[in-house]
Amino acid sequence: MNLNLLNLYNKKVFFIVSLLITSIQLSAQKVTIPIASENHMILLQTDHLNRLRTIYFGKPIQNQSELEAVGATTNYDENNSGIYNSAYTPAGTWNLSEPAIQVKHADGNPSLELKYSSHKKEQIDANTSLTSIVLKDPVYPFEVTLCYKVWSKENLIEQWTEIRHKEKKAVLLQKFASANLYFSNKDFYLTSFQGEYLKEMQPIETKLEQGIRTIDSKLGTRAMLLQTPNFIVSFGKPASENQGTVLLGQLAWSGNFKLDFEIDSHKNLRLITGINPYASEYALVPNETFKTPSLIYTLSTNGTGEASRNLQNWARKYRVLDGEGERLTLLNNWEATYFDFDENKISGLFKGAKDIGVDLFLLDDGWFGNKYPRNNDDAGLGDWQENKKKLPHGLGYLVKEAKKEGVKFGIWIEPEMVNPRSELYEKHQDWVIRQPERPEIYYRNQLVLDLSNPEVQDFVFGIVDNLFVKNPELAFIKWDCNAVIYNAYSAYLNKKGLPQSNLYVDYIKGLYKVLERIRAKYPKVPMMLCSGGGGRGEYEFLKYFTEFWPSDDTEPLERIFMQWNYSYFFPSITTDNHVTDWGKQPLKFRVDVASMGKLGFDIVTNHLSEKDRQFCKQAISNYHSFKDIVWHGDQYRLVNPYENDIASLMYVNKDKTRAVVFNYLVNNRFNLTATKRPVVFNGLDSNKKYVVKEINLYPEIESTLKSVVYSGDFLMKAGYNPDVNLKRTSVVLEVTELK
Ligand code: DGJ
Question: 696 and 572, same structural domain?
Answer without folding.
Answer: no
